Every structure is written in C-alpha cells, then in structure tokens.
UniProtKB/TrEMBL annotation:
Coiled coil: none annotated. Keywords: DNA-binding. The keyword DNA-binding applies. InterPro entries: YbaB-like_sf, YbaB/EbfC. This is YbaB/EbfC DNA-binding family protein. Gene3D superfamilies: Nucleoid-associated protein YbaB-like domain (3.30.1310.10). One of its GO terms (molecular function) is DNA binding.
Length: 123
C-alpha cells in the first residue's frame, strides 16, 4: 500500500471517528419511539438505546389484561430500540474508510485491507 493510500485511510478514519462521536453526543432530546397495541403503549429510547420513557394510555390500563399489556410494553420497547438501531446503521453505512462503508468493514474486517488476511495457525 502506498503512502498516499495510507494518508487517505487515516483521514477517512479520523472523519468517521468524529462523525461517530457526534452521533453519540447528540443532545438528550434525540429520541426514538416505538408503539404497540395500536398505540396503547409508546416507548421512547435515547440515541444509545437507553430506555427513557414508557407511556400507557389510560384506556389500556383499564381494558387490557396484565399479560397482554406486558407484551405491548415489550413490543413497544423493541420497536423503539429498532428505530435507534436503524439510525445507527444508517450512520455507519454513510461513513467510508478506504472507499468501503464502515458497516461493511465491521461486518467483514478482513475485506477492509485485502491481502492482510492471514490463515489461522492450527493447534
């Protein structure tokens, strides 16, 4: 690999790290929501997937049995987490290092640097 290629990769890595840090440091107001039970339960998570809030409608508290309500809570949280994960995946897909997306590199690190894969030694 020539010095220009290495310099370009270094710049790409620095830019990717800065973008990832900006993403993680987004304001606490950056939230993702998921709903279940036709909107009876709404869960909110932050950028890192941390659970911030679960809202249950008054009607759901009165009309839905406890097991179903628990399932709605679980499903709403999972839906909100999926929204946060989708945002993270979109960010990683938009960042490139050496002409490859960071998501691709994370999925297959050896592909990032062709010719650097070494066979594992057998024991």
């Amino acid at each position: 690999m020539n010095p220009d290629s290495l310099s370009a990769i270094r710049r790409d890595i620095a830019a990717a790290m800065e973008s990832a840090a900006d993403f993680v440091e987004r304001p606490a107001g950056e939230q993702y929501q998921g709903a279940a039970g036709d909107g009876a339960v709404i869960a909110t998570v932050g950028v890192g997937g941390q659970l911030l809030d679960v809202r249950i409608t008054p009607q759901a508290r009165r009309a839905v049995d406890n097991l179903t309500l628990g399932e709605h809570v679980r499903d709403a949280i999972r839906a909100a987490e999926a929204e946060a994960e989708q945002a993270r995946t979109a960010l990683l897909g938009s960042l490139t290092i050496g002409g490859r997306s960071v998501a691709e590199i994370l999925a297959n690190p050896g592909a990032a640097m062709p010719g650097t894969d070494r066979p594992r030694r057998q024991r």
